[in-house]
């Protein structure tokens, strides 16, 4: 039989362990909620609408400068949430990817690709400047997948075209809003 001291010690130890587990959960939850409307988004938590930075209008930019850009901020118009994504240029066009699309957990975690298929209108912020774009999903079997994958691999050690062809990674072109571009032909 336990002494009253041992029972109190065991109970206090359990309380301490519970508090130590609860502190990071509450902290992460608080960060997630407070960042929901922030600009800029963080790498771990999405943000709200992209409002900072000059909105660039005019002729289609030469996207070749993206070879030196690590990540960009991407915001869909519906819903107006932003996130940090990888970006690559290939043949003068800009592309973004979303991995983990081949399983239920990935699709719950990353809802923006499905939302982008429904309404691809977006704003991207690159080097402090905002651009209105339309996300157009590049389907498997499209001729640009090899080249775009090679650029993502150069920049990020991306796994290659197989995951795009299999549908576990989704590839989008950042097309002009007035365009229905697919980045190439099948």
Can you give a write-up of this model?
There is one protein chain. With 186 residues, this protein is an alpha+beta fold. It has a domain at 54-175: Roll (Pnp Oxidase, Chain A). Helix content is 34%, strand content 25%. The chain has helices at 4-35, 104-109, 112-118, 145-156, 161-166, and strands spanning 54-56, 71-76, 82-90, 93-98, 121-126, 129-138, 170-175. It has a 6-stranded antiparallel beta barrel. A hairpin with a 2-residue loop joins β5 and β6 (129-138). The model has no long low-confidence stretch (mean pLDDT 85).
Per-chain topology:
Layout: H1 4-35, E1 54-56, E2 71-76, E3 82-90, E4 93-98, H2 104-109, H3 112-118, E5 121-126, E6 129-138, H4 145-156, H5 161-166, E7 170-175
Parallel strand pairs: 1-6
Antiparallel strand pairs: 2-3, 2-5, 3-4, 4-7, 5-6, 6-7
Q: What would a concise description of this structure say?
A:
The chain contains 5 helices and 7 strands.
Short key terms for the protein model shown above:
186 residues, elongated, Pnp Oxidase, Chain A, six-stranded antiparallel beta barrel, alpha+beta, 5 helices
């Amino acid at each position: 039989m336990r002494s009253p001291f041992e029972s109190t010690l065991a109970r206090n130890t359990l309380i301490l362990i519970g508090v130590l587990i609860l502190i990071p959960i509450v902290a992460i939850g608080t960060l997630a909620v407070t960042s929901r409307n922030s600009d800029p988004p963080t790498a771990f938590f999405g943000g709200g609408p992209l409002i900072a930075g000059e909105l660039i209008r005019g002729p289609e930019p030469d996207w070749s400068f993206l070879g030196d850009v690590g990540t960009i901020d991407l915001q869909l118009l519906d819903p107006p949430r932003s996130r940090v994504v990888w970006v690559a240029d290939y043949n003068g066009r800009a592309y973004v990817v979303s991995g983990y699309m081949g399983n239920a957990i990935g699709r719950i975690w990353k809802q923006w690709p499905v939302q982008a298929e429904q309404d691809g209108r977006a704003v991207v912020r690159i080097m402090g400047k905002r651009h209105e774009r339309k996300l157009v999903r590049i389907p498997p079997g499209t001729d640009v997948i090899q080249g775009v994958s090679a650029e993502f691999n150069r920049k990020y050690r991306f796994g290659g075209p197989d995951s795009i062809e299999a549908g576990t990674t989704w590839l989008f072109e950042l097309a002009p809003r007035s365009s229905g571009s697919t980045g190439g032909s099948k």
